[in-house]
Design brief:
Blueprint: H1 5-14, E1 22-25, H2 28-38, E2 42-46, E3 57-58, E4 68-71, H3 74-86, E5 89-90, E6 104-108, E7 114-123, E8 128-134, H4 141-147, E9 153-156, H5 165-174, H6 182-198, E10 201-211, E11 217-219, E12 222-226, H7 235-238, H8 248-255, E13 259-262, E14 267-271, H9 274-286, E15 293-296, H10 303-314, E16 321-328, H11 333-347, E17 353-359, H12 365-371, E18 376-379, H13 382-393
Parallel strand pairs: 14-16, 16-17, 17-18
Antiparallel strand pairs: 1-6, 2-4, 2-6, 3-5, 7-8, 7-10, 8-9, 10-11, 10-12, 13-15
Helix pairs in contact: 2-3, 5-6, 10-11, 11-12
The chain binds adenosine-5'-diphosphate (ADP) and magnesium ion.
Magnesium ion (MG) binds near residues 207 and 221.
């Protein structure tokens, strides 16, 4: 689960980080009031979960600026916020359709002498959180990481003890903060590390962390992603969820107890068990196809779940064929075949359906499908299933 910049900044501030003053608004009038309260230049920041807002553009607005706009005078505030709330914001991370904006952060503008990147992620190769930092932060960090990965400093963090003071000090030194700035930078890194561990983040970043000409060190932007599997112990974080930012199909699936992740291909997959779902996607790709999704209906796979799964898959206009790959372990194959047939009738298929069943009562399941008179192709084995569905999608 992701949260907005203003929410991430509140968490950081609560952990002791210095952040610029800001007020969240939902209308041009409220933005003007906030501007008056700030009493100086502000930056208007569209609140969407996607990154790259600064370089983004508001779709069809005809404006040459994006989701981060520097404002000097009161008169500019209203019209800019109007555009932000009216047109979807398209960034590198939103896809072409863009993302609607319903909140704008009116943030005190900072003078910037330096922009630095700091972020924490889980490094799966070493099985530890890692604090990453780069002296060349800001909107170009992806390019720096791709062009000169050696410029990204990495410090593994022991999750039991957290980021140690000596580690923060060492990083501050390597990032060439002055003696006066270093303690401020260290306290920002410490706050980031603390939030990351306490709230079970999978990613937390401050980009940019800025140094002002006066020597202040501030978190100007913040992004956080939380481990969904740990949300049960963070009701405070769960409350920050913004469903308007989440993929509607993924939300719908979660409510039925399905794990659904939307992808970019054209073959819908309905599988039980995460491991089988992964290998199903692999074998589709191996045979030249592209999965439209990852969908795990779980071990039980009852009729309601299968029906809802079909609805979600077929609501996706890109889906040109569907592969059902189910191992009847907890559920028997004849029960699953019955659920597929019932769902097939209820949902109304516009795409060819290939079904591969294996497991208990395998003699009955495929027979039921074949005898149903419905346009369902049965397959034996993963390879056969993958080949058939790839051909059907073409
Ligand atoms: P994103 O990463 O989504 O593009 P940021 O909040 O990082 O959004 O903003 C992009 C750039 O805009 C920053 O790198 C910084 O240069 C500038 N910026 C952002 N907030 C402020 C601010 N409060 N004052 C001055 N400049 C800002
Ligand atoms: Mg940023």
């Amino acid at each position: 689960m992701k949260i907005h910049e203003y929410q991430a900044k509140e968490l950081l501030a609560a952990a002791g980080a210095a952040v610029p003053r800001g007020i969240v608004v939902t209308s041009p009038a409220a933005a003007q009031q906030a501007f008056d309260q700030m009493g100086g230049p502000v930056v208007l920041k569209a609140q969407v979960h996607a990154g790259g807002r600064g370089k983004g553009r508001f779709k069809d607005s005809g404006k040459d600026w994006g989701g981060v706009k520097f404002i000097r005078t009161r008169e500019e505030v209203g019209p800019v916020v109007e555009v932000m709330l009216k047109y979807p914001l398209v960034t590198k991370q939103t896809g072409e359709q863009g993302q609607r904006v319903s909140k704008v952060l009116v943030q005190e503008a900072a003078d910037i002498a330096r922009e630095i990147y700091v972020g924490m992620v889980i490094d799966r190769a070493i099985g530890l959180p890692v604090l990453m930092a780069c002296a060349e932060g800001g909107v170009e960090i992806e390019e720096v990481a791709a062009r000169s990965p050696e410029k990204i400093l990495r410090v593994p963090v022991n999750p039991d003890t957290g980021l140690q003071p000596f580690q923060a000090r060492r990083l501050a030194y390597d990032l060439e903060f002055t003696a006066e700035q270093a303690p401020k930078a260290e306290s920002l890194m410490t706050a980031l590390g603390r939030v990351f561990l306490e709230k079970d983040c999978s990613l937390a970043e401050i980009n940019p962390l800025v140094v002002t000409p006066k020597g202040d060190v501030l978190a100007l932007d913040a992004k956080m992603t939380f481990d969904d599997n740990a949300l049960f112990r963070h009701s405070d974080i769960e409350q920050l969820r913004d469903e308007a930012e989440e993929n509607p199909d993924e939300l719908r699936a979660a409510r039925t107890g399905l794990t659904y992740i939307s992808l970019t291909g054209n073959i819908g997959c309905l599988v039980n068990g995460a491991g089988l779902a992964m290998s199903t996607m692999d074998i589709i790709k191996y045979h030249g196809g592209e999965p439209a999704n990852f969908l795990d209906v779980g071990g039980g796979a009852n009729k309601e779940q299968v029906t809802e799964a079909f609805r979600i898959l077929l609501a996706d206009p890109r889906v040109k064929a569907v592969l059902v790959n189910i191992f009847g372990g907890i559920m028997k194959c004849d029960i699953i075949a019955g659920a597929i047939l019932a769902a097939f009738k209820e949902v109304g298929f516009h795409a060819p359906l290939v079904v591969r069943l294996e497991g208990t009562n395998i003699e009955q399941g495929p027979k039921m499908l074949a005898e149903s008179g419905q346009n369902i192709t049965t397959a034996t084995g993963m390879t056969d299933a993958a080949k058939k569905v790839v051909a059907a999608a073409r």
